[in-house]
Design goal:
By secondary structure, the chain is an alpha/beta fold. The protein contains nine helices and 15 strands. The strands form three sheets. Strands 2-3-1-4-11-5 form a six-stranded mixed sheet, sandwiched between helices. Helix 3 crosses helix 4.
C-alpha cells in the first residue's frame, strides 16, 4: 500500500482532508492517527505538520502533504512534487521603523523566528551574517522584550505587525502553500502516480465548471470563441432547426462574464454545473 503522511492539525489539516475526500479516499474519524483504505490501496498517517517532511525524507513514508515552508525549514531529504493551492502564506522580515529597508541591513542583527532552518538558509544564500533566534510562537513581542532586533514570520494583512509597531523589511523570504512531497531522488512509489492524478483531477475540477447552452447555428463560431473548452466544445443538433446545443468546460472565475457574453449573442438555456473530479 502507498503510505501517505497527512497533517493532523493546524491550518493545513482541514483543507488536506477535504482534498483527499474529494479524491476518493476515506475520511478520518475520531482523530485517528492511521486510516487504512484497502479499496484505494493507501494508508494515511496523520502526523504533526512539522514532522511530515522528516518521515518522508527518511523513506519511512512514501509521500506527504505539508507546507512548503515546513519542508524547507526541516531541511529533510525531501522535495516538492505538486503544489496544492491552499494554505498560502508569505514570509517577511520586520522590525521597528528605522531598522532597515533591505536584506543587507540585517547584517549582525538578532532575528527571531519559528522557522530557523528556512530563515538561516535564506540568509546564507544571500551572504548575510545574522544571529537567528528560534522561538515557538508570538515572535512579534520578542523585539519589545529585547530578545531580537528583527523578526521573520508569516504576514497576511500586516495588521498584527502594525499593532506591534513594526514595519516590513526587504522582499518576501518565501511564498508558501500546501504541497505534496516525496523523498529526494527516490523512484516513485507504487501507487503514487495514481494518487497524484486523483489530486490533480480535483484541483482542475475546482478551477472549472461545465457550461451548457443553446445557440443558433449561425452564431456558433462566436459562441465557440467564448467557450473553446479544453480541446473543443461538444456540439449537438437540437430538434428545432437551426439551433445547436453546446457543452464546454470554462474557468470558474470567468463564469458570470461568459454567461453575459453568450446571452448577448443569443445563447439561451445557459446552465452551469460543478465538476467534482476529472482527468485531462
Amino acid at each position: 500500500m502507498l503510505r501517505i503522511a497527512v497533517p493532523n492539525k493546524g491550518s493545513l489539516s482541514e483543507a488536506a482532508g477535504e482534498l483527499l475526500h474529494e479524491a476518493g479516499y476515506r475520511r478520518r474519524t475520531d482523530r485517528e492517527l492511521l486510516v487504512i483504505d484497502p479499496a484505494a490501496g493507501v494508508e494515511l498517517f496523520y502526523l504533526r505538520p512539522r514532522d511530515i517532511a522528516v518521515y518522508v525524507g527518511s523513506g519511512r513514508l512514501d509521500i506527504g502533504i505539508t507546507g512548503r515552508d515546513l519542508l524547507l525549514d526541516s531541511r529533510a531529504d525531501a522535495e516538492e512534487i505538486l503544489p496544492l493551492g491552499f494554505g498560502r502564506s508569505t514570509f517577511r522580515f520586520a522590525g521597528r521603523p528605522g531598522t532597515g529597508s533591505t536584506l543587507e541591513d540585517l547584517k549582525g542583527r538578532r532575528i527571531a523566528t519559528s522557522f530557523p532552518g528556512l530563515v538561516q538558509a535564506h540568509l546564507d544564500k544571500a551572504g548575510v551574517p545574522a544571529d537567528v533566534v528560534k522561538l515557538d510562537g508570538a515572535v512579534e513581542i520578542s523585539i519589545q522584550l529585547g530578545v531580537a532586533d528583527v523578526i521573520a514570520d508569516v504576514v497576511e494583512t500586516g495588521s498584527t505587525l502594525r499593532q506591534a509597531g513594526l514595519e516590513l523589511i526587504g522582499s518576501p523570504i518565501l511564498e508558501s502553500e500546501a504541497v505534496v512531497i516525496k523523498r529526494r531522488d527516490a523512484e516513485p512509489a507504487a501507487g503514487s502516480e495514481q494518487f497524484l492524478r486523483r489530486l490533480q483531477g480535483v484541483l482542475v475540477a475546482r478551477k472549472y465548471v461545465l457550461m451548457d447552452y443553446d445557440i443558433q447555428a449561425e452564431r456558433l463560431r462566436e459562441a465557440v470563441d467564448l467557450t473553446p473548452g479544453l480541446e473543443s466544445p461538444t456540439v449537438s443538433p437540437l430538434h428545432s432547426e437551426g439551433w445547436v446545443a453546446v457543452r464546454a468546460m470554462v474557468p470558474r472565475e470567468q463564469t458570470q462574464r461568459i454567461m453575459d457574453d453568450l446571452w448577448e449573442i443569443g445563447a439561451r438555456a445557459i446552465l452551469v454545473t460543478d465538476i467534482r473530479a476529472c482527468r485531462l
